[in-house]
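ok here's Extensin, seq below lol
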Amino acid sequence: MAAFRSAALAVLIAALLLVLILAAIAGLRSNPEDLPWTPLHLSQPVGLFTGRKLAGLHDKGPKCEKLLTEAGVRFETAPPIKDGICGYTDGLRLAASGARRIVLAPADPVMACPVAAGLAMWEWNIVQPAAQRYLGAPVVAIEQLGTYNCRSIRGSATALSEHGSADAIDVSAFRLADGTRITLSDDWKGDGPRATFLHTVRNGACKLFSTVLSPEYNAAHRNHLHLDQAARGAMGWRACR
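and the structure came out like this:
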């Protein structure tokens, strides 16, 4: 009898494990954005591997531009630039129309295509939902401090900044449709809706960009979010600070 009970228990456990495995497979199939081998689509929700797939577009300009076009993002390509160790081959300027509703100010900065793709998904999945939830109005403009800039990382004499390949953008403020202006320098601290919004969009950016540096990182970032798509490989380290 004891042997029969042990065998029955083993069969029951195996059946439960099979059910759990089948449920997990079904869940992943219904959420392809959570799988590392499924193709990236910018119109999909943000998944577990979305950020790595976006960073994987580095040096894949035509593929990246195709993804933008399919998602309804309008842009103009920029001529390649070679300036010593700096430069880019996949630079573009986002147009203030199409599927995107947020403009950049100053307008028309040149950025690498993976940065543009990350910004589009950040707007749709993170920024606008957070603005409506915490501030009650949509964002109409993102103020930025620059994209392409041939320079080293601040504090280093040799390490090239991601700005040197147009793979980064520094975001300093958000303008709402009702005229409200939310800035990193004035609104980051505290627990009010403005600070909650800024922390939410920072945390969301960490799912889409290789590196996100905020005022919590150091004094050099007290007034902006640094967002970049550094190419560190499929399993490379990611920074969110």
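fwiw Residues 18-28 have pLDDT under 50 and may be disordered. kinda neat tbh
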